[in-house]
Amino acid sequence: MQGQTKMGFNATWSMAVGGMVGGGIFAVLGLVVEMAGQWAWLSFVIAGAIALASAHSYAELVARYQVAGGAYAFLIALRRRQFAASLVWGLILGYVLTVSVYAFTFGHYLAHAFSLGAWFPRLCALAVIAALTFVNLRGVAASAGLEIVTVWGKLAVLVGLAVIGLFAWSPERLTAGIEPQGPLGALAGAAAIFMAYEGFQLLAYDYDEIRDPDRLLPRASLSAVIAVIAVYVLVALGATMLVGASTIVEQKEIALSIAGERALGLVGLVAVTVAAAFSTGSAINATLFSTARLMKQVASNEDLPPSLAHENARQVPDRAVIGIGVVSALLASLGSLGNLVEAASLTFLAAFGTVNALALQGAGSRRWIRLLGLIGCIAAGLVSVWQMFLHAKLALIGVVLLVLLAVFGRPYLLRHAARRNA
């Protein structure tokens, strides 16, 4: 690949932020307020701290092994092939789930803005996935350019909305119409919305697409997580103070549109709707871009069907991109927001915990950061499983069945695929 088509710092940072914010504040604010009440902002801080420690571990391992592929590549380098293959199947599921969440959210914000019926969000989700699948098939330059434009636009709208809400400082609105929660509610909220921070790890799959990755990737990922924590906290406080906690919970799919309309009337509604479209669109774009490259690497190692390693004339893993798009569109048209978010969060906690454990085994300074990251992932994972057992049993059963498929069904499926290709 020619040097001018590779991503510099701005594009790399934008890919990380785009992958986080799209699934974060627009998709999960109502869910986290429902679980944590007035401590929703602390949920974002806790999950963000775990993500920041995990980003540090990713940076350590990328510098050590200098390969694309994230947790999968690190485990392969350590000759833990079976664990790597099982984990990556779960991770790919997590990315497919997040694309469906972003598309689901995209459709609901547009449907609210145009006062369209319940049919529109599903149709819109299918359309945006199809459009961004096409963008990704055109190559790196198109995907990175779209990311830079959309990220800076949505950050401007989100910060503006948060500032308006904070100027109308009304702490009582953080519990208006809902039962106040204790600080422990923040732990449950953090565990449920961990997918809001998954975007930074996408950079580990883009190692070969980044200009000077050993220098840029750690800087971009760590600074992106810090920036996103700040935005999430500001918006969680500001939006809730604008409309009250009960409205955020009742209108969870479109909570920020309601807040924007309350702040600036029609102008606010339009601005937030545009930002939501940009935000979820950039998140779909970033996730499609990076996950397809992960799938190509895994398929090249025959831990996925080898046909998924196929590239088009623009060196894009086209079959992987299309496969992600098709499955994500199906889930977006059938799933519910809460179940999709919690299932995706659990898969990312497993991957982040693995990376922190691997980084902890090596030499280097700041081992305490990696240890805190590992402890945080384990604690959040246990809380997430317990919450799903209490409130989302079907989603938990689905995750368990898919884990069993990844561990025990994967070898059979791969042998079957190999026989068909022979």
UniProtKB/TrEMBL annotation:
Organism of this sequence: Imhoffiella purpurea
Gene3D superfamilies with a match to the protein in the record: Amino acid/polyamine transporter I (1.20.1740.10)
Lineage: Bacteria, Pseudomonadati, Pseudomonadota, Gammaproteobacteria, Chromatiales
Membrane topology of this protein: Multi-pass membrane protein
Compartments, as annotated in UniProt: Cell membrane
GO cellular component terms, A-Z: plasma membrane
InterPro entries: AA/rel_permease1, APC_superfamily
Gene Ontology molecular functions: transmembrane transporter activity
UniProt name for this protein: Amino acid transporter
Residues spanning the membrane: 12-33, 39-62, 83-104, 116-137, 149-170, 182-200, 221-243, 263-288, 320-337, 343-359, 371-389, 395-413
One Pfam family from the record: AA_permease_2
Swiss-Prot/TrEMBL keywords: Cell membrane, Membrane, Transmembrane, Transmembrane helix
